[in-house]
């Protein structure tokens, strides 16, 4: 099963996506997502200039060996660019293996551990009234879990509150736009939002909130305490996670569960968080954490320490990543939740897929492989557009975490 071709496709059907398509001598193809929001062309170059030439002629069946070859072989280990590139190759090879076996990838991972993958949607709006209306829309669509973000009185723009309700997209300009942040205003406002939402929607709807790495551990501990009466499923990314031991402080003070991991690339980013049981959900993804092969290792370590999965699934992860995520989600023993932000119609058309949403669950494809593809002709009609994620400043002008 020799690899005879591998090509990198960059397309922008509403936002930028990088996709790797691998082809074998027998004509079997596989796809992998390599999108890294705001740094798309760095991964495209890593693949085109350094990985693709070494892939040609290799045996497509050797997934583990290829993973090790790319990880150890580069000498420079880890990092988002490297790991997204490795992820794309790994995902494409799992797709090929499934097609050759005539089985959906989840069957190769041990088969189903559950009937469906519980997903959460994003309710975001400027005011508490508006956000309640957004939550209600998700409940009507059948969602069992909703992430809630609102504007903060006194701040011009707030993370998570976008113009478009179903496809929130923060990468809005070639040069980063500047947003404003105030921890005091935020901590004062957010508990009241959840008091209202919990009161209106009752105890059975799972509620989540994304802090987007903006607090210090002691501030996060306080927020966790303030939110305890509203029984959140998780408080996400309370602090930047480079300092894994920083989570000890949060943990000592609150029973609000903690989720973290959308920027993690390898198990080394979270091994202390997991081993010391400092978190409850690990949110690493197929595309940014080295593909199905490596993400499964992270989830296996997590399973030993009562930590569940909660993979990132924002609009900047393509339907190829979502398709792959669902095969893992449905098969692992310690699945928690899957984020599901819908893609635009143009994106869905460029990436035809057969996973489907019903009653608050996503269901992976039953087709051999991942059950997703890229329509290269359509993709060619959407050329790359430079777009960066914003930056954040405190009211006195200090650059803060976005
Ligand atoms: C989430 C995220 C996203 C990210 C975005 C960055 O939880 O969905 O925080 O909104 O900001 O994916 O590329
Ligand atoms: Mg997040």
TrEMBL record:
<dbReference type="InterPro" id="IPR013341">
    <property type="entry name" value="Mandelate_racemase_N_dom"/>
</dbReference>
<protein>
    <submittedName>
        <fullName>D-mannonate dehydratase</fullName>
    </submittedName>
</protein>
<dbReference type="Pfam" id="PF13378">
    <property type="entry name" value="MR_MLE_C"/>
</dbReference>
<dbReference type="GO" id="GO:0009063">
    <property type="term" value="P:amino acid catabolic process"/>
</dbReference>
<dbReference type="InterPro" id="IPR029017">
    <property type="entry name" value="Enolase-like_N"/>
</dbReference>
<dbReference type="InterPro" id="IPR018110">
    <property type="entry name" value="Mandel_Rmase/mucon_lact_enz_CS"/>
</dbReference>
<dbReference type="GO" id="GO:0000287">
    <property type="term" value="F:magnesium ion binding"/>
</dbReference>
<dbReference type="InterPro" id="IPR029065">
    <property type="entry name" value="Enolase_C-like"/>
</dbReference>
<feature type="domain" description="Mandelate racemase/muconate lactonizing enzyme C-terminal">
    <location>
        <begin position="128"/>
        <end position="257"/>
    </location>
</feature>
<dbReference type="InterPro" id="IPR034593">
    <property type="entry name" value="DgoD-like"/>
</dbReference>
<dbReference type="GO" id="GO:0016052">
    <property type="term" value="P:carbohydrate catabolic process"/>
</dbReference>
<dbReference type="GO" id="GO:0008927">
    <property type="term" value="F:mannonate dehydratase activity"/>
</dbReference>
<dbReference type="InterPro" id="IPR036849">
    <property type="entry name" value="Enolase-like_C_sf"/>
</dbReference>
<dbReference type="InterPro" id="IPR034589">
    <property type="entry name" value="D-mannonate_dehydratase-like"/>
</dbReference>
<dbReference type="Pfam" id="PF02746">
    <property type="entry name" value="MR_MLE_N"/>
</dbReference>
<dbReference type="InterPro" id="IPR013342">
    <property type="entry name" value="Mandelate_racemase_C"/>
</dbReference>
